[in-house]
Write a structure and sequence with these properties.
This protein is α/β, with parallel strands linked by helices and 391 residues long. It has one domain. The protein contains 18 helices and 9 strands. The strands form 2 sheets. The protein has a 7-stranded mixed β-sheet with strand order 1-9-6-2-5-3-4, sandwiched between helices. Helix 12 crosses helix 13. The radius of gyration is 22 Å and the shape is globular.
């Protein structure tokens, strides 16, 4: 036996429930009073065992709908470690700092998220984890308001994993979150140019240029009342067996075609249900009466509720957990001078400068490159290299 085999693995789990509980002081007004969500049909989620929650994407908007769904499911299950679903996400959410909420270090993984790779997915299913997975993938994010509620092609990866491990898939329908940024349109010729020249899969118009001008606008969200409808669990293994797939571990071209047919079949059925729920719950996405009630409750504290205050409040909360209290009110404002960049034209330069020249917890000056990447979470987390602790 080699020395490497004798060495126990270095377990890694950045899920930070203490941080999540502390964050409620900042997050709960946003989730509960701004978005005013409803969770319907949660009784359909199996109470125990592995499961894949499979929601639709809201195109070209920061993923507040995913954050709200994650929070609602956590509360529904009892708000403890056992109740925490594992959201799996594309690597860009971790490795690109502005794809994390307001640039907060390792935010998605601290909330229980795990990088989506085929091997990671297989490992999570083998462990019996309960996960949230968006089967539309990147095309679902980039579909734009002009294609709202139009499900994109489903990935076959989760079909294979669900069938391999006999895990039920629970379709989840997110209604009204498409209206978070209703001025975000995509056009294939523009997206083609962006992909060819910059490696960016899409450019939402006019929201993209607006966010380049004002960093705060990148995180903008209008106050839609989000509705989450949990559908009936799908026995994917049975569908794959009916399709005649012979080997889920070594698929030939014929089996891959059959898996694709199953994915398309599920997508088509989900589209019918989504259209039905949009008709029922999506006629009045903002519901002004309940919004006015929230605004009255937060009179004098609107920065707690409205999007212009979110960068300031989230980042100050993050920093205050790692530094002593301010000396006075003036000092409390002065020590976070770099956050003004969120509100200035082309303020990305100020935000980037602050990250470069300031010491932790406001920046990364003095940190070795490897440590900096670890702190920020700017790496690909592979479970075969850094496994989760045993359950």
């Amino acid at each position: 036996m080699t020395k490497q085999q004798d060495t126990p693995p270095d377990y890694y789990d950045p899920l930070d429930l203490d941080y999540m509980e502390d964050l409620m002081a900042v997050w709960q007004p946003v989730a509960k009073d701004y978005f005013r969500p409803r969770l319907l049909g949660a009784h359909r989620i199996p109470k125990t065992g592995p499961v894949i929650i499979a929601p639709n994407h809201s195109g070209n908007a920061f993923p507040y709908d995913g954050m709200v769904l994650d929070w609602l499911l956590w509360l529904h299950g009892g708000a403890n470690r056992q109740a925490k679903f594992r959201s799996v996400f594309e690597r860009e959410l971790a490795t690109t700092w502005w794809m994390r909420p307001f640039g907060i270090d390792n935010f998605w993984r601290r909330g229980g998220g795990i990088d989506i790779t085929f091997d990671n997915f297989d490992t999570l299913m083998a462990r019996g984890e309960r996960i949230i997975y968006y089967p539309e993938g990147v095309p679902g994010i980039g579909k734009g308001f002009n294609n709202r509620y139009q499900l994109q092609r489903f990935s076959t990866s989760y079909i294979i994993m669900a069938a391999r491990h006999h895990v039920p898939v629970v379709p989840t329908y997110i209604i009204n979150a498409e209206w978070v940024v209703p001025f975000s349109y995509t056009f294939r010729p523009v997206d083609w140019v962006m992909q060819k020249l910059f490696g960016v899969p899409f450019l939402p118009l006019p929201a993209g240029p607006l966010a380049l001008l004002l960093p705060w606008a990148w995180y903008l969200a209008l106050p839609t009342r989000m509705v989450f409808v949990i559908g009936e669990p799908i026995d994917v293994a049975a569908l794959v067996e009916e399709a005649g797939v012979k080997d889920l571990y070594d698929l030939d071209a014929e089996d891959r075609a059959k898996v694709r047919q199953v994915a398309d079949q599920i997508r088509d059925a989900c589209q019918v249900d989504l259209d039905r729920y949009v008709e029922r719950y999506g006629r009045w996405p903002y519901q002004g009466r309940s919004l006015r009630k929230s605004l009255r409750r937060f009179r004098g504290r609107l920065s707690h509720l409205l999007p212009w205050g979110w960068p300031w409040r989230f980042l100050r909360h993050h920093r205050d957990r790692m530094r002593p209290p301010p000396k006075n009110r003036f000092h409390a404002w002065l020590r976070d001078w770099d956050l003004i960049g969120f509100y200035l034209p082309f303020g990305w330069a100020i935000l980037s400068l602050g990250r470069w020249i300031r010491k932790p917890p406001c920046g990364y000056r003095g940190l070795p490159k490897k440590v900096k990447k670890e702190v920020q979470g700017e790496f690909i987390w592979k479970l075969d290299e850094r496994p989760l602790p045993p359950k």
